[in-house]
Amino acid sequence: MACVTVFGSLSMLLYPLLPGLLHLSPAAFGLWSGASIHEIAQVVAAAFQDGAHSGEIATVAKLTRVMMLAPVVITLGIIAVRRGTRIRARSASRAAPPMPWFVLGFIAMMIVNSVVAIPTAPKADIALATTFLLSMALAAMGMETDFRKLKAEGLKPLALARRPGSLSPFLRSCW
Question: Do 30 and 57 contact (CB within 8 A), yes or no?
């Protein structure tokens, strides 16, 4: 968890340099940010530094990644339950595959936002509250990072994060 926080914090500081260094368009930078930064709040913090268009593209890319967790988690859960059932054939109990309930909430809110017209004033208040909550989430993650534990682990987590096989396909193609 500390590595995710440290790398995400570095991303918020260093990613905004990429458009100038790599001559990325706002859309390309947004896609890069959304596809390669782990935490949603860190994606938002990094990408919106290059403008609203980059931030919106990054947010959609990241939320799409989050949405894809649902079918992957359910599929892996079903596979695990089937393998477990074969191993424990004598056992009458059968575990249910895990269900990522947050995804259903996300879909419900997406549908509500698409169907219900929210007046401008409440929408502005909601946006302000969202910004505040994302800032608080980032601060909480940073405050939970124990640098002593990270230091005690040495360079192993850094080496794992840097290993080309551990990079996302998008980032690997750009590496």
Answer: yes
Residue 150 contacts residue 157 (beta carbons within 8 Å)? yes
Residue 51: CB atoms within 10 Å:
14
The backbone region for 167, taken as left when phi is positive above 0, alpha when psi lies in -120 to 50, beta otherwise, is beta
Q: What is the CA radius of gyration of the chain?
A: 20
Maximum CA extent, the chain? 62
At residue 50's C-alpha, the angle toward residues 45 and 56, to 5°, is 65
User: Degrees (nearest 5) of the Cα angle 145, 39, 150?
Assistant: 25
pLDDT digits (tens, 9 = 90+) for 68-115: 887 887 788 778 777 775 555 455 555 566 666 777 787 788 788 889
Q: Is the pTM of this model over 0.85?
A: no
Q: How far is the C-alpha of 16 from the C-alpha of 167, rounded, in Å?
A: 20
151 is written with which tokens? 């230091």
**DSSP class of 146:** -
For 100, the token pair is 């990522």
CA distance 125 to 110: 18
